[in-house]
């Protein structure tokens, strides 16, 4: 066994060529990373996706694929769409709260001047 | 639904196979929307989708398919970041809104402190984080809260949610589930 095989080639039990598309992004010390991505997307699809991207963007693409795959494993029904939904709800709640809080500022600014006025009557 | 005599579902059409009566895809990929399965197949692969659906109870499969279609569309639109791009954008929006809210709430507190310093301040300050209290107590120039520069400094100091550049779904979900600062404490 070649100890220098990347995690993908180790997982797929194949030889790791010099120009392996996976090896820069799936080092052998992190086998779970490829296992997760493979489980959701499949090695063939990941390979195709990476090959269609310029080399300088592949690292980011791999990280986002790993993130989405991990989300899907943790939540098999909604995956990362669950997070998007949570964030949208949070935005909605905060947007509803903001005008109320700004109105309270106006009230707080008016209130003291009314108290001062009444003190001199 | 697939079966003898009826038209094959979109998946079996694309995969060029007979659509069985119990085809797992048929309820979710009708033949009148071939694009839906095509995009999911492109990103995830038919066999992976089939495995995922088989592992789910039937009543959850429709939602799972819809979320897979959403993710696949996002990935095709943005091959580098996919859905993560949308998450990043929304997180920034949440951060900005929470900062605006924090600034507004601090302004209310400062106005109250200006006018009722002895009666209210101790009770209200107990509701703030230590860092927030320190900032408010040390900032003697209350008029400057209205200027943009100092609001930004206050925003930066008071914002407790740090945007995580580390793609860890559990940690991002925990961070985002924090509620905005409570309103009632400022008025008691």
UniProtKB/TrEMBL annotation, chain A:
InterPro entries: LOB (IPR004883)
A Pfam family of this chain: LOB
Domain LOB: 4-105
Family: Belongs to the LOB domain-containing protein family.
Protein name: LOB domain-containing protein
Source species of the chain: Eruca vesicaria subsp. sativa (Garden rocket)
TrEMBL record, chain B:
Pfam families noted in UniProt: LOB
Family the UniProt entry places it in: Belongs to the LOB domain-containing protein family.
Protein name: LOB domain-containing protein
PANTHER family tied to this protein: LOB DOMAIN-CONTAINING PROTEIN 12-LIKE, LOB DOMAIN-CONTAINING PROTEIN 4-RELATED
InterPro entries hit by this protein: LOB
Organism annotation: Eruca vesicaria subsp. sativa (Garden rocket)
Domain LOB: 7-108
């Amino acid at each position: 066994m070649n100890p220098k095989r990347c995690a993908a080639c180790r997982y797929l039990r194949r030889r790791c060529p010099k120009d392996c598309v996976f090896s820069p992004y799936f080092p052998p010390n992190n086998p779970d990373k490829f296992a997760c991505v493979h489980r959701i997307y499949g090695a063939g699809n990941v390979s195709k996706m990476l090959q269609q991207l310029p080399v300088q963007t592949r690292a980011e693409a791999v990280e986002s694929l790993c993130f989405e795959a991990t989300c899907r494993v943790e939540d098999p029904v909604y995956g990362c769409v669950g997070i998007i939904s949570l964030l949208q709800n949070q935005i909605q709640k905060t947007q509803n709260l903001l005008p109320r809080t700004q109105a309270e500022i106006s009230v707080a600014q008016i209130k003291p001047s009314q108290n001062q006025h009444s003190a001199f009557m | 639904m697939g079966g003898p005599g009826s038209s094959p579902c979109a998946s079996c059409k694309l995969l060029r196979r007979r659509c069985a009566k119990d085809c797992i895809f048929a309820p979710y990929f009708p033949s009148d929307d071939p694009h839906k399965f095509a995009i999911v197949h492109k990103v995830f692969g038919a066999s992976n989708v089939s495995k995922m659906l088989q592992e789910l109870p039937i009543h959850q499969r429709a939602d799972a398919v819809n979320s897979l279609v959403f993710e696949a569309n996002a990935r095709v639109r943005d091959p580098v970041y996919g859905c993560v791009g949308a998450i990043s954008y929304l997180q920034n929006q949440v951060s900005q809104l929470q900062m605006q809210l924090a600034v507004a709430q601090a302004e209310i507190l400062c106005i109250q402190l200006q006018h009722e310093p002895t009666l209210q301040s101790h009770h209200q300050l107990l509701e703030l984080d230590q860092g927030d209290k320190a900032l408010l107590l040390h900032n003697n120039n209350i008029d400057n809260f209205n200027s943009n520069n100092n609001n930004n400094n206050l925003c930066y100091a008071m914002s407790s949610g740090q945007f995580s550049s580390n793609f860890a779904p559990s940690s991002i979900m925990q961070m985002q589930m924090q509620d905005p600062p409570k309103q009632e404490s400022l008025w008691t």
